[in-house]
Design goal:
By secondary structure, chain A is α/β, with parallel strands linked by helices. Chain A is 42% helix and 14% strand. The longest helix of chain A has 21 residues. The radius of gyration of chain B is 28 Å and the shape is globular. Classes of the chains: A alpha/beta, B mainly alpha.
Chain lengths: 428, 320
């Protein structure tokens, strides 16, 4: 029928009506959709009864990591696993993802008690039972709430200070043993082209925990009390301000402390960073690289290493909790070759399994071996009872002390108030 | 057409009238239909993505809602009390005030000045108009990244520091220095660059509405071109536009988020209310109860300030 005949079959008005409402519906559906990372259930065809699982990662900085994660997911045959790789603010995206069933089935994160209290993660004691003893106690403790294990440690990321050996040798400086040594080393190493140390563009908030540990303190005591309130902790925070005010720290770098660009490009002599960056630093600097732990506050203190890392969890909101548990058991407990690949072939991480760590050849020489030893001697893991709200109060304390030179004792009192309110909310 | 064929409108006036009525009714129904086809999607969008969240936020603000949008523990006004006594929230309102003190008058004066200049240009007027308007099309996030990574980065090869170096001045860590608070320079300049063009266009539209006869009359009466004409003719004639610009500007300043978040992150010495509220409710803290209470407090403040402003400047009065 010719198109210009008005009443040919479908009237123009009807056609418009129909296409209009279709378009509106489509726009609405698109707006509601959002990429959950899960493959659409009818796309495979040949998948049969296999369930779909979505696995969320933050963006690792090292090349090849995304391809590796995808490779592991593809190798799993009992479910269709798709990987959602998240650049940018992973924590926020994950937090909102976990509020709904559109979120991940399995994801990497760090445990805090809030996730358990609001029933976001499922206990994994059953799949961990046989291999529990093969994990370091600290890596189990950081994933345990009320005696139940909620996550499988995937990688351990020690954070320490790496330095250019040649620059320290030239200045006749030995690796610092106290915070005062560190401050004077940073000052001496500073020239008009090179700053002494890079501890982050925020001026050193990442050093808050290590400084606290180096004074003998801790975030929370075992009986759930603030452990950062004594005079020695205040002294340690004050030292961080001294370091910041010494004009020997690099600020405003295009990349932050988690990226080795600053030390690699010769902007600084020392940098606070994780062991993940060792391959990248060795490529740029060769053997001109040494490592030391965050130094002790004084003779009574101890050096400190932050033993961070990532842990695999199963979302309690997943429609396929059992399949998800099976998958994480397969990947992070059974598939030792993949675990080894993930820990050693991109950035360097300590494999959390003792049996794997013992045979990790790449970590048995050079600065990597030194870092592993420092972690074994001085490592501190996160306390799951330390909630993000407490963390935020602690960050405010550090910002006020380090950058604004506020009185540490007064700032501690403010943070203590928030932490105590959180503790009474959580533990009564 | 032969006479034997009855045409309905010719033979039966009664049914014809009915038919016309039906057609009219159908016309009205058609209009209603088209009203909903065009307006419906927006109404649905507004309902689903604006009003529903606002109502839900109101509900959440009376509950303890950690890590959940369907809370069960009612806490009454406690979240509001907590937020109104939270020194971080209050200081974020302070940060906003400082920001507004910088940005609102600066934007007003500069965009008006730009509009006057561009309006006077005789050649390539639309070129200049587009050039100044173009940055409006740039995303705040992208602009912030350029500001942070290349213009105002703190290392010696940043653009601003390279310029300082020509004059033998030491580089400055623009975004990390709190004493003096250099971070305000990138924050204010990025917003100026992005929004000046938009307000300039509003002013140009206002300027073009002023009748040339007023200027002619002023000339005849002996008013000197320049300041006198600007002060007594242009400025009063631009009142409606000026008030609109001030109100839009202030609301935009209240909603500041992108440049703060992307330039300096969530730091306690310079976070406007939205960055703080984002941090507690949608960041890793996921305290939706306190976050919602704070958001509603902020909404009420914006409403009060806008109403006051319209009252003072008489926006929306007859004749504007």
């Amino acid at each position: 029928m010719p198109a210009h005949v008005p009443n040919a079959g479908l009237s123009r008005r009807d056609l418009l009506k129909r296409t209009g409402s279709l378009a509106a519906l489509a726009a609405f559906a698109a707006a509601c959709g959002g990429n959950t990372g899960r493959p659409s259930s009818d796309s495979g065809g040949g998948g049969g009864a296999k369930v779909n699982l979505s696995q969320w990662y933050h963006q690792y900085g090292e090349t090849g990591t995304q391809q590796a994660a995808t490779k592991y997911a593809k190798a799993y045959t009992d479910a269709n696993v798709s990987v959602a790789w998240t650049p940018g603010d992973y924590a926020s995206k994950l937090s909102s993802g976990l509020l709904s069933t559109k979120g991940p089935d399995v994801f990497e994160s760090q445990l805090n008690i809030g996730m358990v209290k609001s029933n976001q993660v499922v206990a994994l004691d059953d799949i961990m039972a046989d291999v529990k003893d093969d994990f370091q106690p600290g890596d189990l403790a950081t994933n345990t709430v009320d005696g139940k294990i909620y996550g499988i440690r995937m990688i351990v990321d020690p954070q320490v200070i790496y330095y250019r050996k040649s620059l320290l040798d030239k200045a006749g400086i030995k690796p610092p043993e106290t915070i005062d040594d560190l401050i004077s080393a940073a000052k001496e190493l500073t020239t008009n082209k090179v700053k002494g140390i890079f501890v982050g563009n925020d001026g050193g908030n990442a050093l808050g925990g290590p400084a606290l540990w180096s004074s003998g303190g801790t975030y929370l005591t075992d009986d759930h009390k603030p452990g950062f309130t004594d005079g020695r902790a205040a002294q340690a925070f004050g030292k961080l301000h001294e370091l910041y005010a010494s004009k020997s720290v690099l600020l405003g770098s295009p990349t932050d402390w988690t990226d080795p660009s600053a030390i690699n490009q010769g902007l600084v002599a020392m940098q606070w960073i994780g062991m993940w960056a060792v391959p990248g630093m060795q490529k740029a600097l060769g053997n001109d690289l040494g490592v030391f732990a965050f130094p002790a506050l004084d003779a009574q203190g101890k050096p400190a290493v932050y033993s961070g890392g990532w842990t695999q969890f199963v979302s309690a909101k997943s429609p396929n909790v059992d399949a998800a548990k099976k998958f994480v058991k397969w990947l992070w407990i059974d598939k030792q070759d993949f675990q080894e690949d993930w820990s050693l072939n991109y950035g360097f991480h300590i494999p959390p399994r003792k049996s794997l760590a013992a045979k990790a050849a790449k970590l048995q020489s050079g600065v990597a071996a030194d870092t592993v030893k420092l972690t074994a001697d001085h490592g501190h893991t996160d306390n799951p009872a330390w909630t993000p709200k407490m963390g935020s109060a602690f960050t405010d304390l550090l910002t006020n002390v380090i950058k604004k030179g506020a009185d540490p004792a007064a700032e501690i009192t403010k943070a203590e108030k928030t932490v105590n309110a959180e503790l009474s909310r959580l533990f009564g | 057409m032969s006479a034997s064929v009855k045409t309905p409108w010719a033979t039966d006036p009664a049914t014809a009238g009915e038919r016309r009525g039906a057609r009219r009714r159908k016309g009205i129904a058609g209009n209603t239909l088209w009203f909903w086809v065009f307006v419906g999607p927006f109404v649905v969008g507004l309902l689903v993505f604006s009003y529903l969240p606002i109502i839900w936020s109101l509900v959440l603000s009376f509950f303890e809602a950690y890590n959940t949008a369907t809370p069960s523990k009612f806490v009454g006004l406690q979240n509001y009390i907590d937020m109104l006594t939270d020194h971080n929230f209050l200081s974020s309102l302070g940060t906003f005030t400082i920001f507004a003190v910088f940005i609102v008058p600066l934007t007003f004066v500069l965009s008006l000045a730009l509009a006057l200049l561009v309006n006077q240009v005789k050649i390539a007027r639309s070129f200049f108009r587009s050039v100044f308007f173009l940055p409006t099309a740039c995303s705040y996030v992208v602009a912030s990244l350029i500001w942070r990574l290349s213009i105002f980065n703190g290392v010696r090869f940043g653009l601003a520091n390279t310029v300082l170096d020509w004059f033998g001045i030491d580089g400055i860590a623009w975004l990390s220095t709190v004493d003096p608070p250099w971070y305000w320079l990138p924050i204010v300049t990025v917003r100026l660059w992005l929004q000046l063009g938009f307000y300039m266009i509003l002013f140009i539209a206002g300027l073009q509405r002023i009748s040339p006869t007023l200027y002619e009359a002023a000339y005849v009466d002996g008013a000197k071109p320049g300041w006198q004409v600007f002060r007594y003719i242009t400025l009063p004639q631009l009142r409606a536009t000026s008030v609109a610009v001030l109100i839009l500007n202030l609301i935009a300043a209240y909603q500041a988020f992108d440049e703060f978040y992307n330039l300096i992150g969530n730091v306690n010495y310079a976070r406007p209310p939205l960055v703080y509220l984002y941090g507690i409710s949608l960041g890793s803290i996921q305290d939706l109860g306190h976050g919602s209470a704070g958001a509603l407090i902020l909404a009420v403040i914006i409403m009060i300030v806008t109403l006051l402003q319209s009252r003072i400047f008489g926006f929306g009065k007859a004749g504007d």
